[in-house]
Amino acid sequence: MADATRDETEDRPLRQYVATMVDAFRGSPLRRRLLLLAGGIFAVILATAFGQIVLNRWNQPFYDALQQRNFAGFLHQLMVFFEIAGSLLVLNITQQWLNQMLHLKLREALTRDMIDEWLRPGRAFCVARRGQIGVNPDQRLHEDVHHLSDLSVDLGVGLLQAGVLLASFVGVLWALSSGFVFHLFGAAFQIPGYMVWAAILYSGTASWLSWRVGRPLIALNGDRYAREADLRYALVRVNEQLDAIAVSAGEADEARRLQRDLGAVIEASRRIVMAMVRLGWVTSGYGWVTIVAPIVIAAPVYFGGDMTFGGLMMAVGAFNQFHASLRWFVDNIGAIADWRATLRRVADFRLVLLEAEVNDDAVDRIAFIRSPEPAIVLDDLEMDVPSGPVRLSEPHVTVRPGERVLVTGARGEGKTLLTHTIAGLWRWGRGSISLPDDDRIAFVVRDPYLPFGTLRAALCYPRAEDGCSNDAILAGLERVGLGRLTSLLDHSARWEHEFGNEERRMLSIAQLLLHRPAWIVIDDVGDLTDGNNGERVASIFRDDLGAAAVIAMGTVDGHADLFSRTLHLVTTPNPASG
Questions:
Q1: Same domain, yes or no, for 231 and 379?
Q2: Which of 170, 295, 442, 556 sits between 20 and 30 A of 401, alpha carbons compared?
Q3: Distance CA 493, CA 208 (A)
Q4: Could you say which of 297, 329, 355 is where a domain stops?
Q5: Residue 361: inside a domain
Q6: Can you tell me the distance from the alpha carbon of 294 to that of 514, in angstroms, rounded to the nearest whole number?
Q7: Rounded to an integer, what distance in angstroms lies between the CA atom of residue 305 and that of residue 499?
Q8: Residue 134: its pLDDT value, please?
Q9: Strands 390-392 and 565-571, how do they pair?
């Protein structure tokens, strides 16, 4: 039972987060297109790196022509520059297009995977009861997946580009360093690959310092996303409950709650701002020093007379390209921290979804059996809740076609829980439930769901719209007393905002008339049979749905003759709960 209600997942290792997202990629129908886009980007980066090497070589003859005041050579090198720059421009635009397409397709692939995993039968219900991680899945499925896709593409392409440039220019910089001769106290000596080692030491020091200063951003970003999700959830909840809030004159209270959630977001963001300022001292200071660093590093050789001005500029250009690759980590430390925090939120949610149906031998589970026998059988059924196990007054219950069973119990005794259990959503407890294999069971819940779209499609739900005849829809609406709605059948709206609960429950009865299920489970039947439409509902179950077996939860003041027998729910108090 603890497995069903824990508040949050444990802090898992990074490799587990990466592995679950790699699995999502492998199983995606968009995998081939993503690989083609990534391959295209790799090819363009290789071509760009070659162009950068050619551009770096251009530095020496261009600056030597300037130093020698060779006007003809200067003009020739300008033409060469425009040829190189034009080619690089085409490559840059091509890479930009490929990057944007990779952004879109990766987001589509990850979002499709997360939605598919979330909406597998029973999973969303189960995860919603896992504590904080199930409170606002919309934030993780929308904003977090979007942000993770963007960061993954930007960081991945940037790292690939840095790696290719690093491999391309290490040889160039090493070759340039081979001619460096140092003069000290009358002695001359060489350091093989001097500029390479200087760039590695310079960038390595900055990377280590940036990581030490920027590492707290991982936890700070994670906390900010959690607070943002809380505020988003609170805003959505207020918007959905505006009528009840206005009637109760609760606007001031809700405003205070929203202000409190906003304050938490602002405080989390303030901590990130301070951390970014501390990191900025390192990265910005490092960036300013980098302007003169390669010249200072090569200055001893230049002033020693062993290098021309053009050679100096070529060495500076190669150093900057090599160093830009090495400092990728420094430039992206904030984005890396953000990526890790977002990865954890998305991957944690996916892992919880995948683990939602894993059997735990240490926890009792209700057995669900599909049987060819036309009956619903509840054997020794006990449902675990914190207050203690809930069971039926009869240990062995068999409901056959056409039978009508009423299940009663005190308020909070578990009647809705039994509805969820028969639906296969609540699995914690003991005993077994055997369900007929060849018939679909229809559930009438307290707060019926009407999907967005036309009223015709909502009435046919979960079947396709073309699965219901127009005559049957019209007859169903007339039978439940909602004939006035026939003019709205082809209108689209958010119907939960258009109709009250009583109308929506009557529409759920109209759905039963359309689908004609052999088995019906009703939560809170008293609200149907004892209300304004009680007589109408009773006659529908007697005449129109007379062949259906019904298991109804609740108590009824009138129309008790609808039910052939009554069962009672009993709770065994849990000593620990006292």
A1: no
A2: 556
A3: 56
A4: 355
A5: no
A6: 79
A7: 89
A8: 67
A9: antiparallel
Mention every residue, 6+ apart, whose C-beta is less than 8 A from residue 449.
461, 496
**Cα(280)–Cα(519) distance, rounded to whole angstroms?**
66
> Which residue type does 55 have?
L
Encode pLDDT of 481-501 as tens digits.
Answer: 999 999 999 998 888 778 888
Contact between 365 and 160 (Cβ < 8 Å): no
Peptide bond into 29 cis (omega under 30): no
Separation of alpha carbons 129 and 519, rounded Å: 27
178, part of any domain: yes
pLDDT of residue 183: 55
What tokens were used for 121?
């039968």
Other C-beta atoms closer than 10 Å to the C-beta of 569 total: 19
How far is the C-alpha of 323 from the C-alpha of 48, rounded, in Å?
17
Task: Give the CATH number, domain containing residue 467.
Answer: 3.40.50.300
What is the arithmetic mean of pLDDT over 129-145? 76
Decide which of 360 and 33 is more confident. Answer: 33
* CATH code of the domain in which 85 resides: 1.20.1560.10
Quick one: 168 and 299 in the same domain? yes
What total of structural domains would you count in the chain? 2
Domain that holds residue 35: 2-355
